[in-house]
Amino acid sequence: MRRLLRCLVLIPAAAVAGACASLAPTPADSPCALGPAELARVKSNAFDFLEEEWPVLDKECELISDEVIATDTGKCSIAGRTRQEAGCAKPPHEGFSIVFDRTTLEPEEIHFKTE
Questions:
Q1: How confident is the model at residue 6 (pLDDT cuts 50, 70, 90)?
Q2: Contacts 24+ apart (CB under 8 A), 2-8
Q3: Which one, of 67, 101, 95, 71, lies nearest residue 81 by Cα?
Q4: d(CA 113, CA 115)
Q5: For 2, which of 9, 34, 73, 97 is 20 to 30 Å away at the CA?
Q6: Average pLDDT estimate for 8-25
């Protein structure tokens, strides 16, 4: 997970999917593998979670990866970071991961990567 977050922080937003995919692929037989509709729902739920729980973050400036990974605790997680674009303030974090329930696809907790 730490490698994926580091990847998300260091590369431009447009390259996130391609460059990070090789670091944390989600095999089709993984318990965290999602179809396109499920992935869209997880990302939407993650954005809503960020907006509700951390209203100081600018939802329009947050980027969430398409890669879902299994955590060491057997849960599923999706990573994100703040876009590095004009108009997006430098955040107090280097990236984040949102742990979600695989059955309901609802976010359970967020972990921020800081220095």
A1: very low
A2: 2/113, 4/65, 4/67, 4/69, 4/79, 4/97, 5/79, 5/81, 5/94, 5/95, 5/96, 5/97, 5/113, 6/94, 6/95, 6/113, 8/63, 8/65, 8/79, 8/80, 8/81, 8/95
A3: 95
A4: 7
A5: 34
A6: 41
Reported pTM: 0.69
Q: Tokens 């980027």 — which residue?
A: 63
